[in-house]
Amino acid sequence: MQKLGFSSSAGSLITLASPWGTGGVQNANTIGSPVIDFSQGLSWVRGVHELKFGYQFVRQGNDSASPPYGNYTFTNDTTGNPEQVGTTGNSLTSALLGLPAQTNNTGSVSNSNRVNTWSFYGQDSWKLRSNLTVTYGLRFDRRGAFDPSSSTVVSGFTANGDYWIGLNQLPPACSQAGKAPCIPGAGTLQSIPNGDKIMLSPYGRAWGPAPNWSDWGPRVGVAWRVTGNTVVRAGTVLFMTRSWAWSRIGKESPDRGLLQVRYLH
Question: Where are the domains positioned within the chain?
Fold first, then answer.
């Protein structure tokens, strides 16, 4: 492959017309989801109360890497007789001459992001009677700002239709930068259709959402021993869970960042 001039650390694919088909080597993209989770708890029994306190720190995110990749398509028409299109020419000959009809080459792309969450909780199991225990508590989760790597630019639409760019300052004109991220046309937002809807994210490179200070999760439960072999339990709790959805600038999905869901049980 390299002797033919098709060099790529991730491999190259060559597509020929029938009866040849497609051949080559393509390395897979890689993605990882590292998680650091540290927690400590303390239990203290005092009389009819069993108190529990604790905290948790979680740092999680995504790492993805796409190695360079090449795709070359060769057709019969490239080496065919213009006066006899469709019946002359040979795609293998086009490949040996290094005359692709279509190429698709990408460079290496690496993206990563992180977010930190701190959690604190307190709980008391109060034994009101020998056969009746009431448990109540409160948990607080504090999510930090979304933290993309220096090579990752997050952008996308907001709920009101504005388009936020996750940078601390607007990118230069494409005519100056020569690569993304850049502003096409005259290099100003005013020169772009609907440019008045495009703006820098108020959270800078973090893009959003803003750090959350409102995640309070109360819980309460009761356990009643009716007989020696029968216990009736009931309770309710509000808790938060998080999932990830993000993509690079220019990709098709505008959804990215940290999604938070509340559950009531």
Answer: 1-32+69-106, 35-64+114-145+208-265
For the full predicted model, state whether its pTM sits above 0.70: no
Contact indicator for 256, 247 with CB cutoff of 8 Å: yes
**Which tokens hold the place of 264?**
């009531």
Is the peptide bond between 209 and the residue preceding it cis, with omega within 30 degrees of 0?
Answer: yes
HSE-up (13 A, CA, CB side) for residue 263: 5
Each residue's pLDDT tens digit, 170-228: 888 888 888 877 888 888 888 888 888 988 888 888 877 777 788 899 999 999 999 88
CB 41 within 8 A of CB 89: no
Q: Phi/psi at 185 (nearest 5 deg)?
A: 70, -130
Kind and range of the H or E element at 43? strand 35-46
DSSP state, residue 158: -
Give me the phi and psi of 82, to 5 degrees please.
-55, -25
For the chain, the straight-line distance linking the first and the last C-alpha, in angstroms and rounded, comes to 59
- C-alpha 261/C-alpha 264 separation (Å) is 10
Amino acid at 85: V
Backbone angles phi, psi at 83, to 5 degrees: -85, -5
| CA 180 vs CA 33, 158, 171, 174, 251: distances in Å | 26, 21, 9, 7, 12
CA torsion through residues 38, 44, 45, 46, sign: negative
124 contacts 43 by C-beta, under 8 angstroms: no
Q: Are 146 and 207 in contact (CB under 8 A)?
A: yes
